[in-house]
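Fold this complex.
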Amino acid sequence: MKRWLTDLDRILRGEATRLDASQDEALPIPLGGLLLVILLLAAIYGACMGFFAGFREGGACLMQWLAAVVKVPSLLFLTVAVTFPSLYVFNALVGSRLSFLAILRLLVASLAVSVAVLASLGPIVAFFSVSTTSYPFMLLLNVLVFLVSGILGLAFLRQTLNRWNIRATIATPSETESRNDTLDRNVKKVFTCWMVAVMLVGGQMAWVLRPLLGKPTEAFHWFSPRESNFLHAILEAFSNLFS
Amino acid sequence: MTSLWTQIDDILRRRRAVQSRSTGSAMLWMIGCIAGFGLAYGAVMGAFGGVSGDRPWQVAYSALKTPLLLLGTSLIAWPSFFVFNTLVGLRRDFARATTALMAAQAGLAIALASLAPLTVVWYASSSDYGDALRFNGAMFAVACFAGQWLLRDHYRLLIESDPRHRWMFWLWLAIYVFVAIQMSWVLRPFVGDPNAPVEFFRREKWGNAYLVVGRLIYDALVN
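Structure:
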């Protein structure tokens, strides 16, 4: 466990993705251990988020708390699982040098960064969950926290790609450089499109998995019927904030 | 006693000396300062309703709540600050940054305690609860200014070594203020209305400070 946490720490510090890091293997990190740490940290955030249901007025809803603990890791893993195949295929199509495993490692590392930020903001969310009874406020706070952690994870991914680019340029002889440049530009475009897609999919995935927080007025249920969409719900929460 | 005095003086004056001593014992000293001086101001603050009957309980509650407000807020905000510092690559300075944060908190508590005599004079000269609330608010504002001043001074040393610390300074203030406002709302009453029963937390719902203020503004704008 300690080793896995050290690996996470190395990723957060940027040591695992440094320019002088091992050249023959992109991102030398053990996937299995890191995935377990991600699962754990996501569950911790889920527990913090679930305090809203756990401390609700008129009796705690322990099932909703448990649902949050289970659903937050599911949300993250499902989002990555849904978007990964298309990322790999389009990367291969534009002629990227990144192998299947390299892309997977990169994604897992970015997910680890996101989850670390998420879990570190957990105490703040837990504190507000315990002391606030307003559902729209907690919904928006959680969306904001997910947004911040998502953006930081994606920023990490972008930065790592840039570093790999520089490393490849240094390693490649000059005559093939211009060809590599075009390819890298295409790879970056693919990743940029993918980042937009992953945000949209993530939001909608949260909507599919709802209720994550659990409306205080509703009885517990694992899933809600199909209706509306994520963005509509956010706008509704804004309009209900002060009413 | 001399040692205690030197410690307090160091916190207020010698930034470099405090920063170079970022050990566990220095940290304990600062936490002790926050607890001790916070307790002292809190006790004075809670004495508005006098000390007869069950009012000493209000004094005790207020005394406990002030350090709780300062330390609790820091504790909640600290994990995310740690991760953000690590992410931007400032981990090697993190012990110094934490020392700076704690020194600023300790400075805030010392400043609060130094203002306690003024609060006593105010309480002796006015019996209006609303005025007492506003006066204590003003004292907290002055102490916060002192704490922020110290933090900025400490951070100046850090920013000299790496300009990215400037971002972390503002980030800390944002997270800290966001949590502190809600924390002080949850921990109400600090002064204790003499006409209301003594209680640790308000009997009504805890509620959310931002929503209360937002609703006030919303109502003012809409109606």
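Chain B touches chain A through 28 residues (CB under 8 Å).
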